[in-house]
Amino acid sequence: MSDAGVVRLLVFRVGGLLCAAEAERVREILPRLATTRIPGAPPAVAGLVNVRGTLVTVVEGWRALRQPEPPASNGTQGGTTVLLEVGAGRKVLGFTVDEVVDLLAADAAALERRAALPGVDPTLVRAVGRRAGQLFVVLDTDALLTPILSS
Amino acid sequence: MDLSQYAELFLAESREHLSACNQLLLEWERHPAGLTPVSGLFRAVHTVKGMAATMGYARVTDLAHRMENLLDVQRRGAHPATDELLQLLFRARDALERAVELSVVGRERELDVAAIVADLEQAAARMAPARPGERPVPSPEPTEPEPEAAGRLVQVTLRPEAPLKGGRAVLVLKRAQALGAVHAVTPPVTAFEADEFDGRFSFRLDATAAAEQIEAALKAAGDVAHVTVGGAEAGGPAPEPGATPGDAGAVGGGPSRHIRVDLRRLDGLMDLIGELITVRGRLNQLAAERRDPAVDDVAIQVSRLSSDLQAEILQARMTPVWQVFDRFPRLVRDVARELGKQVAFRVEGKEIELDRAILDELGDPLMHLLRNAVDHGIEPPAERRRRGKPPEGEVVLTAQRERASVTITVADDGRGVDRRKILERAQREGVVDAHADALTDEQLLRVLARPGFSTAEAVTSVSGRGVGIDVAMTRIRALGGTIEIRSELGKGTTFVLRLPVTLAIVRAIMASVGPERYALPLTYVAETVEFGAVTTTMVEGREAIVLRDHVVPLVHLRRLLGVTSDRAPARAPIIVLELGDRRAGVVVDGMLGQQEIVVKGFDAPQGTLPVFSGATIMGDGVPALILDAAGLV
Question: B606–A41: do the CB atoms touch at under 8 Å?
Fold first, then answer.
C-alpha cells in the first residue's frame, strides 16, 4: 500500500456528489457533533466543536461544495464529521459529509487528470476517479478549506 | 543523526549559565576586592565550554576557553578586579551569549570573535607575571577547541550491531555530561554522522564519580559494549574542586529532582484535564438523576481526584519569576551606566510563581518599564543632590501574590511625572478636555500610553519616545492583566501590574443571548444592572445609560453578534465592563451564573468578529465563546 504511485483515498458523499480526500490528510472520522456558532464567520462554517478537549472549527460540506441542503433528518443528527489536516501548518478542520462510503487505494497515475465534473468548481478538484462505475472527484482540500481559515 | 534536537537543550542550559555569569559579574562589580564570584564564574564558563565542545561549536568553545583562562589567572593571582577587567568580562560574556545563540541556529560562521579573543589574551598575559615554577596557561589554536587534556580519559565502544551509532554516541555523551564537563571528544562529534564512524570514541570527563559509576551511567545509554575509565591526567589544570553536584552553578551535575518538560506537553495535559473536568460535570449530573448512593460515591471520588489532578498540573506550569527577573540587574546597570546615572536596583519576591505562559510574555513589558524608570525617572546624581536626595537612585522590582493574582510593581524614587506639563500637552493634542484642570492617575496613564507620546525633553537612545508604556500596556492587557500608575512629583513613579496567576482558568459570568451562551471573564466586570430599570439616553449618537454620573455606552450583544432567533426579553440584564477608565454596558438576554472556565484557543475562521479571546467547553461538552472586554469597550 505504501508503494510510490499509490494513494489511499477516503470516499464520501456530500449531497449528490461523490468526493474523495487523501486519506493521509484525514485525522479522524467522527459522528456529527454539537456546534457553537462563530459570529462573523463565513456561512460555510458550521461552528466550533469539542473534540476531546480540543476546539475544532467545522465546515459544512454541502455549503462549501454548493450542494443542496440535506433533508432535515440529516441536519443535526445524521451525518459524519471528517477531521482533515489543512495547509502547510496541518491545522485540523472538521468537514461534514452525508456519509463515508469507502476507503480505497488508487493508482495515482490512474486518476484521470481532468478539469472537473459538471457542477463542481474546477479549482477545487485535483483529479477525477472511478469507483464501482461511478465517478468521484478527488478534492483539493487545501484549496477548499485554507481560504476559510484566516491568515 | 541530527544534533539539532540537542541544540535546544544546549541553548537553554547555556542561557542559565550565562545568566548566572551576569549575576556574578554584577556582584563582583559591587565588591571588586572579593574573589568569591570568580569560582562561580569559572565554573559557569567552564560548563558552557564543555557543552559547546560536545556540540562541535568551535568558536563558542574557543571564546569560553579564553574567558576561563583569564578567570583562572585572576583567581590564582588573587587580584582585585579593576573596572577595566570587569568591563572586558561583561563584553566577553555578551559575546559568548551571541556566539551561543548564533551557533545553535547554524550561523556560527557569521561570528567574529577575534577582537574579544585578542583582548582576553592580552589581559591574561598582562596579569600573569609568570612566577617561577608556574605553568603558563595553555592557549589553544582556535581551530582545535580542546587540546588540553583535563579530566579522565573515557573510552567507549558501541556494540557492532547497534543501529544509528552516531545518535547513540551522542546519547552516551549526554550521560557523561550529567556527571561532569566533557572535552576532547575524539573523533569530534561532527564525525559521528560519517559512514566510517565505527562506534569507538573517547573523551575526557571532569568527574569525581567512581569508575564503576561512570561506566554504569554510560552503559545505561544502551548499545554500549565497553567502557574504560582511566585516571586523571596530570598536566591539565586541576579539575574545578567546587564543581560538585548540587552546586547552584553546575546545572546537570549529579542527580536532580528537576527535569525539563516541553511546555507543549504541559499544554496537552491542561487540555486533557479541562476535558476531564467537563466530563466530571456530566457524571455529577447523571449521578444526581440516578439517586444511587454507589454511583454518587464514585462521582464524588472522581470529583475530588480530578480537582487534585488539576491543581497538580497547574502547579507544574508554575515558574518562579526569577527566571525572567534575573536578566534585569544587568539591564538596569547597563542603562544607568550609559546615561551616567547611579542606580541601586533591588528585586523582591523572586520566588513568586506565575504560569509559564504568562511569565514568558512579561519580559518585554518589564524591560520597557525598567528602562523608563532609569531614563525618565531617576535624575542624574547632581540633580538629585540639589534636591536633597542621595545621589544614588533606587529602582525596585517587586512580585507579590494576592489571592488569584500576582502584582508586579516597578518603582523608582526619581522625579515623578509632572502632571501640569502632561496636562498641557494632553489638552493641546486633544487627549483630554480643554477645560480639565487636573489629571487623575487613570488619565495620566492613558496619556502616557498613547503611541508616540513622550515627555522626555530629549529623546534618548534608551527609551524616549513613550513607546515603552504603550507596548507594556498592550502586552499586559493581552494577558488579561491590568496596569496602573502612581506618580508623585519629585518623589517617584510606580507602575503596578496585576496579572492572573494562570491564563488557563478564569472565573467568568455566563450570559445567554438567544439560544447561545457566552462567557465574560470577571476581571473586567464592574457590576450588573437591569436594562429598563435605568433610563437610557443618547450620547453622541450612541445609546447609553448613566450610572452614578458616568455615561456608559451600551453594546447590544444580539445586534453585535447577529442573533436573530426569538425576541429579546423586555427586561434584560446589563453587564458593565470596565477597562481602565473606559466602560461599556453589555446587554444580554439572561445571566447563567458564574463559574470557572478553562480558556482555550481556537483557529478563528476569516471574518470572525474581533470580540473573542478564546473559547471554553461547558458542562454539557459544547463549546462557548469567551467575549474579550477589550474588543467591546
Answer: yes
Q: Please tell me the distance from the alpha carbon of residue B345 to that of residue A104, in angstroms, as a whole number.
A: 69
Pick the CATH number of B320-500 from 3.30.565.10, 3.10.20.90, 3.50.50.60, 3.40.50.300: 3.30.565.10
Reduce the secondary structure of B377-399 to three states and give it as a string: HCCCHHHHHHCCCCCCEEEEEEE
**B269 → chain A, closest CA residue:** A53
pLDDT in tens, B597-633: 888 878 889 889 988 988 998 878 899 999 988 788 8
Say how far apart CA B517 and CA B624 lie, in whole Å: 6
Reported as a single tens digit per residue, the pLDDT across B366-406 is 988 999 899 889 999 999 999 999 999 999 999 998 766 78
Inspect the interface and report whether the beta carbons of B600 and A55 lie closer than 8 Å.
Answer: yes
Partners of B615 on chain A (C-beta within 8 Å) are 36, 48, 55
Would you tell me how many other CB atoms lie within 10 Å of the CB of residue B582? 15
Put simply, the answer to whether A55 touches B560 (Cβ < 8 Å) is no
Q: Which residues pair with B319 in a beta bridge?
A: B354
**Domain B149-232, classified CATH 3.30.70.1110, yes or no:** yes
Mutate to test the interface with B, among A27, A33, A37, A50 (most CBs of B within 10 A): A50
C-alpha cell read off for B46: 567552564
Among candidates B271, B600, B603 on the partner chain, residue whose Cβ is nearest the Cβ of A91: B603
Residues carrying CATH 3.30.70.1110, chain B: 149-232
Handedness of CA B77, B78, B79, B84 (dihedral sign): positive
Please give the CATH topology (third level) of the domain spanning A6-148. OB fold (Dihydrolipoamide Acetyltransferase, E2P) (2.40.50)
Q: Are B343 and B336 in contact (CB under 8 A)?
A: yes
- pLDDT computed for residue B147 by the predictor: 41
Q: What confidence score (pLDDT) does residue A116 get?
A: 65
- Sequence-distant (6+) residues with CB within 8 A of B213 are B179
Q: Answer whether A50 sits within 8 Å of B621, measured CB to CB.
A: yes
